[in-house]
Prior knowledge:
It contains nine helices and five strands, in the order αβαβαααβαβαααβ. With 225 residues, it is an alpha/beta fold.
Amino acid sequence: MPGLLPGRETRMRERAYRRMEDLIDPLVDALMPYLDRPFSLFGHSMGSIVAFEVARRVTGLGRAPRSLLVSGRRAPHLRSPRPPVHCLDDAAFADVIAELGGTPEEVLRDFGIFQTFAPSLRADFELNEHYTPLIGPPLGCEIVAFSGDRDPQVTEAELLAWREVTSGPFSHHLLNGNHFYLQASPAPLLALVGMHLRRIACPIQPSLCPEAKAGGAYAALRKRG
């Protein structure tokens, strides 16, 4: 089930959140009715820390996730070595967005169109850049971390640091691409996520599951962990 935050797509007219502490309570309240069954959480970029904070909050409410899947973001306790982006002027901000990839060139070239999306993009960067972990319980669920191998926003060392925020199993995968590798070539990520979800849902030893025996998709991917 996807979560659509204010300031995006059909919610474009709504004010985007700029601080995690303002976002997390209404988001958890909206999700709780759906968490009465086994579930995992996935987040990309800023969504990784949103998913992390949701996981901690619902764990404290007795609804711990089976796993947390994060993508394209350094571990939550690491400070960014990169300068802030949300306060740049329009031209410099557009250059950063272009470097990340994932935004059509026609949007970046047309100032009017870009200005339509810029406020929510700036809000995302502001929330991300001002974020520090909220007070909450430690995680005990499995964490799987993903990143594009040419992502300018996260190094492999920063990705590996996600293992420090859980007492559960950890693995990571570097996939071909930049920050928006999952848009350019979603199939490898979807294959890994699908295999992971089938494994944790399998009621018997994973190595005996038909899906695990047919795990040839791993051969075409770079698995680390």
